[in-house]
Structures are given as C-alpha cells and as structure tokens.
Amino acid sequence: xxxxxxxxxxxxxxxxxxxxxxxxxxxxxxxxxxxxxxxxxxxxxxxxxxxxxxxxxxxxxxxxxxxxxxxxxxxxxxxxxxxxxxxxxxxxxxxxxxxxxxxxxxxxxxxxxxxxxxxxxxxxxxxxxxxxxxxxxxxxxxxxxxxxxxxxxxxxxxxxxxxxxxxxxxxxxxxxxxxxxxxxxxxxxxxxxxxxxxxxxxxxxxxxxxxxxxxxxxxxxxxxxxxxxxxxxxxxxxxxxxxxxxxxxxxxxxxxxxxxxxxxxxxxxxxxxxxxxxxxxxxxxxxxxxxxxxxxxxxxxxxxxxxxxxxxxxxxxxxxxxxxxxxxxxxxxxxxxxxxxxxxxxxxxxxxxxxxxxxxxxxxxxxxxxxxxxxxxxxxxxxxxxxxxxxxxxxxxxxxxxxxxxxxxxxxxxxxxxxxxxxxxxxxxxxxxxxxxxxxxxxxx
Length: 445
Ligand code: NDP
Ligand code: 2IT
Description:
This protein has 18 helices and twelve strands. The protein has helices spanning 3-15, 20-30, 34-39, 41-45, 48-53, 101-118, 138-152, 171-185, 206-224, 241-252, 275-284, 290-294, 326-334, 350-358, 366-369, 371-385, 392-416, 423-441; strands at 57-66, 72-83, 89-95, 124-129, 161-164, 233-237, 256-262, 265-268, 300-302, 314-317, 339-341, 362-364.
C-alpha cells in the first residue's frame, strides 16, 4: 500500500470502530490499488475512495413480532445502501443471529465491487437482521418477514433498491416479503425483489446461479492452465443454496464432490454426494446434514474438526466469512489442492489467502466467483421489466457468458496492473476503475 492508502485505511478504522469484517474487506481492496492510484491521480483529488468507503445511506430499524407462544420478540433490521453510481442498490438480505452493522457493511462493500464486475447496471447494498430462522415455524418466519417489510418497504423499489436472498433468506422468505410489499404499496412491482418463486415473477436458474456461476468461473481459471473440473476430487463447505448448486455443477462437469457441511459438522461421501438426497434433507425437510449421513450407505458424519482436512484437488468454500483460516490453508496446500473458488463472501481469512497465493494455488475471490447470483438477479429484473420469461437453456447460457466476461476482465486487469494470474488484484482493480470513473463523472454527490 502507498502511504496515502495507508492513511486512508486508518481513517476508515477510526470512523467505523469495532466493525472487523468491514475493515478486512476494505483492506483487501486497498492492498490492490497502489498502481491504480498512480495511474489516475484525479481519483485521489476528488476523494473517490473516501466516498466509496462511506455508504450513501444506512438504515437500522426495530422489528417487533409475536412468536407462536404469544410472546413479543424484538429483532434489529438493517439495510445499508452503499453505492448507486451504477444502478439501483442491489444485494441480498441475511437473517442470522450473528448479524450486526459490521456484517452488513462488509457485505455491502463487497457487493458494490462485485456488482460492478458483472458489467450490469446495478449498484451495491445489503441488509438483514439478527433474527434466527432456525427452528422457527413457517408462521413465525412469515410474521417476522411481514414486520421487517413494514419498515423496509419505504426504502426500496425497482428503481431504488432491490433486495434478494443471502444466508437464511430463500424463496420462502422472499415470498413473505414480496407479499407484504405488494399489500402495503398496492403495486405488483415484480422488480422490487429478486429470487422470487417461478410462479410469481422469478427467473429460471436464479436458484442455481451462484453455485453454478462459481463453478463456471473455476472452470475458466482451470482452462487457462489447460485443465478442467473433469475427474477432480472436490470439497464444498456449507450445504445451503450456494453449496448445493456448486456441487451439482461440479458433478455435471465430471468432478466427484466428496464432502459438504453445516454449522453442526461435515459429511464425507467418497462415492460422490447424492444431490437428490441432499436437496431432500436441506431444501425440503430443512434438516441437518447429519441426517444425510444417516440415510446414505458409505457416508459418515463428523461433528468436530475441519472439513478442510479432507484431501481434495479443488476446494469450494460456500458457507460463510472467515470459515477457512491459515491452518486450513496449510493443510489444503500440503494435501495438493490446485484451486480454491470462493462461493461464499470472504470465506478465506487474509492469512489463508496469502498461503494460497504463495503456493501458486489458483484462487478465485468471492466477489468475482460468486457474482453469478446477483448477475442472474439482474437477469430476473430484465425479465420483470419486459414482462418476459426466458428458458432455462437461454438463461444458463447468459450466466455462463457473464462468468466468462468476469473472468476475462479480472485476468486482463491483473495483467495491466502487474500481477498476472492474481484474480484478487484483477477483480479489485477492474471493479474499482469502473466505479471510480462513474463516481467522477457524476460529480460530488
Ligand atoms: P444458506 O442459508 O442457504 O446456507 C448457508 C450454509 O452455510 C448452511 O449450510 C449453514 O449451516 C452454513 N453456515 C452459515 N453460517 C455459518 C457459520 N457461522 N458457521 C458455520 N456454518 C455456517 O446461505 P447461502 O448458501 O445463500 O449463502 C452461503 C454464502 O454464499 C454466504 O457467504 C453468502 O453471503 C454467499 N452468497 C450467497 C448468494 C446467494 O445468491 N444466495 C450469492 C453470493 C454469495 P447452518 O444451516 O448450520 O447454519
Ligand atoms: O452476496 C450476494 O451476491 C447475494 N447474496 C445475492 C444478491 C442478489 O441481489 O442477488
């Protein structure tokens, strides 16, 4: 980092105390930007970076609701509208008990750069709540979502801010949120939320898009080295939306996915995951991963220890931030891992990332590799705006083309800024230049 970037980073630390994940996300971007700062002195003169680190708007609200026992519960709701220079704020909602402002700001910051990288007209935002949907009845989830939307509706809209899902928020929650928005506003405004059900404005392939896109990106990286997913042994962490469809596409491309996890442990299944069973356990029953192992001959469940101890050629972290630390990275490298593709947002710690880069492991940062989800959300918005409905084949082809484009932009930008093969530098510089040019063009706003 240049002394100017270091100074700026210290300002970010002072202005956002206690928000460790946000600091981490900002630092990772700043570490890539020295050559960009040298090339474009006008960006520093107009304080572009300071502006990009300060969300345009941060909304925090009370979410009161009544549980099945008739008790009042209070949660905290967030929507951080980070940047709208490229389009309406766009990004998911996360419902998880660990959520606090720092989570949402890190995710909103990452989202802004990720969305720029897609090349589509979408700004960056993120929201959520410390509500824990685990173990709640459908009625409780609906009641919570209705209360959450009763405040959120005044801040969002198809030209303003378009939320979607993230951890703990899938089609069920999006349905309850959309229903309440529709009721309050008396508008059938399909484009206000993405990740909708297929029968009421959703897009084919949106559910699969993040996981499929991550594997498409990984495949592009492997092709650049004359390799592919075919015949590879793969470990996926998590067993939610991103993990399931990353595993599905990896297996379609000829890999064997031998493990996945949830917060209670991991399963090893050397024959390759049975995805129909996994979907039945996780999507239909909303059960735990341990019950997959109970029902699958040859599979075993491990409650303690790290999934990253399992030998593999390709690692796909698809659960949550900082789930893959330096110890895990050392083990993966020792076991011969060839590529790490981040399906989750910021799953590798900075120390783990350095270990992969030093060992010349192909490394795809989340903001590039998992951008297929939000890109397909933008395709959902296009279909909503034109009241059209595309086929599965066409939509998946669009997604694959978008991931090829992101890979090309990252590779070219890494070359341009003197770090060939470094997709972190490529992603950060390419998206930053695009955001900075638009911010500069729109004046001091
Ligand atoms: P889901 O809620 O569908 O699944 C999350 C999975 O990760 C579950 O298996 C969950 O286990 C596990 N997990 C979550 N938090 C923790 C934790 N603190 N410790 C251990 N395991 C945990 O979420 P998604 O699949 O949608 O999201 C996964 C990641 O991908 C997140 O980083 C998200 O931000 C990112 N992402 C999601 C996109 C999307 O379109 N959905 C798009 C781009 C990125 P358990 O059930 O036990 O909690
Ligand atoms: O992190 C992400 O990119 C998402 N959770 C998806 C956001 C979206 O608007 O589809």
